[in-house]
Design brief:
The protein is of the alpha+beta class and 442 residues long. It is 22% helix and 23% strand. The protein has seven helices and 18 strands. The strands form four sheets. Strands 9, 12, 13, 14, 15, 16, 17 and 18 form an eight-stranded mixed beta sheet that branches. Helix 1 packs parallel to helix 2. The longest helix is centred in the last third of the chain and has 16 residues. 31% of the residues are buried.
Length: 442
């Protein structure tokens, strides 16, 4: 048994990939018969057999990269015939190099004329996408190109030695993917055509108990339709700002100590609602609605009153009941109205009329631990304002970092009705009251 080790093909390289075997176990080979093709970082090379005999075993798989000197082929010698040295394979433009042992890592040189002499010729193999003699690329890069179906000669090389890099191959593959199989369509002969709406497909309902099917009806259906209608009708724009609400927290504590508030729940939401009503007085356009007229036009309806909506998460789903004539209420009246609205919603006793006629809405996302939002405007209104969680955070006061109760005022507005300057002023006014509740005394 004789073993053929991967030879040094004279390129100064230390490894090569077995691209294709030309023999299989049981095949008879003669000296100089091509047994395999290997690929180095510089070229494809045919390996001639240094032995005559029968192939016993292929010791390396196609596509595998191995070091020079690794056993790659086992051959049973023909009876009565000693092993013969064979000419070495040679890469293009590489000089022949002699070697001491046919079974070692370097083979005997070519001989006269530098041609490989064989007693049996293989049929020429069809050119593949990686037959790119003269392209400088390492074996792993060549294998990547072959796996991706890329002709290396078409890849722009950016390596420091003019070699093709992995990034070069991947970039070429991405570009090829973009432009592959693209055809320029022809313009249709008709100028206009109608396309029927695709049928609404109903996905099959799961058969096992890992899923729960919740029918979309009632409040959920109404909410979904309203939100979709608002999102796709009114062009939303959202803004937000952080606020030092420390004085608001102090103000809430003082209100709780007042006898007239003894039987009423007081929270920062009360001050937030009062701040919003104060800001509406300064920017009335926020409290408006976009009205489509019968003649196909539109008008903006500015309301001189505020029905203040409060988004509430209830067992029935999202409800937005509103406090009628909230602008005319005192601090205590507004506190009582907020308490009744919240309790009624939680108990599921909100009446339909309490959810109609709202002019602007507050959503208190702070109760869920959220800081800011880009909420969807309630249909028929021009704005919705979100109150974020109030947390203690570092805050710079007169050049010094101090702990402060900080919240975020955010909101979404109908940009058809309100321009950016008025939106910004409105949010800034709410923030100003939260920073200094004494403004409510004006």
């Amino acid at each position: 048994m004789q073993t053929y080790n991967l030879p040094d093909v004279g390129e100064g390289l230390t490894e090569a990939e077995i691209v294709q075997w030309h023999v299989k176990p049981g095949d008879a080979v003669a000296v100089n018969d091509v047994v395999a093709e290997i690929e180095t970082a510089k070229s494809l090379v045919e390996l001639p057999s240094p032995f005559a005999g029968t192939v016993s075993e292929l010791l390396v798989d196609e596509g595998e990269t191995v070091a020079v000197g690794t056993p790659i082929l086992a051959v049973s010698a023909e009876t009565g015939q000693p092993a013969q040295a064979a000419p070495a394979p040679q890469a293009p433009a590489a000089p022949a190099e002699p070697a001491a042992d046919a079974g070692g890592s370097v083979l005997v040189g070519y001989g006269t004329g530098g041609e490989v002499q064989t007693r049996r010729r293989k049929a020429p193999r069809e050119k593949t996408v990686t037959d790119t003699v003269g392209v400088v690329a390492k074996p792993p890069i060549r294998k990547l190109a072959r796996d991706l179906g890329i002709e290396l000669s078409e890849v722009t090389a950016t390596g420091p030695a003019g070699d093709v890099t992995r990034d070069d191959v991947l970039r070429h593959a991405e570009q090829a993917k973009v432009f592959r199989n693209l055809e320029t369509p022809q313009w249709p002969e008709e100028r206009e055509r109608r396309m029927p709406a695709p049928p609404r497909s109903v996905p099959p309902r799961p058969a096992d108990d890992r899923y729960e099917a919740i029918p979309v009806k009632g409040v959920r259906k109404a909410t979904a339709n309203a939100m979709v209608g608002s999102a796709y009708t009114a062009p939303h724009v959202s803004v937000w700002t952080d606020v030092n609400a420390s004085r608001t927290m102090e103000f809430v504590q003082r209100l709780k100590q007042q006898p007239q508030f003894a039987d009423v729940r007081i929270s920062p939401l009360l001050v937030f609602a009062k701040a919003l009503l104060w800001a509406v007085q300064r920017t009335p356009e926020i409290n408006s609605a976009w009205i489509d007229t019968e003649d196909g036009g539109a008008e903006i309806q500015v309301r001189g009153y505020v029905n203040l909506g409060i988004a509430a998460a209830t067992p029935r789903g999202l409800l937005v009941p509103n406090i009628k004539e909230a602008h005319a209420m005192s601090m205590r009246e507004l506190a009582v109205a907020l308490q009744n609205l919240t309790q009624t919603a939680r108990e599921g006793r909100t009446r339909p009329e309490d959810q109609q006629g709202g002019t602007i809405t507050i959503t208190n996302i702070g109760v869920f631990g959220m800081d800011a939002a880009t909420p969807i405007i309630n249909p028929g209104e021009a704005g919705i304002v979100a109150m974020g969680a109030i947390r203690q955070k570092p805050w710079v006061v007169e050049g010094e970092v101090r702990p402060a109760w900080v919240t975020t005022v955010s909101g979404s507005f109908d940009h058809r009705i309100v321009d950016g300057d008025k939106i910004s002023r409105f949010i800034a006014d709410i923030a100003a009251v939260l920073e200094e509740p004494a403004l409510l005394l004006d």
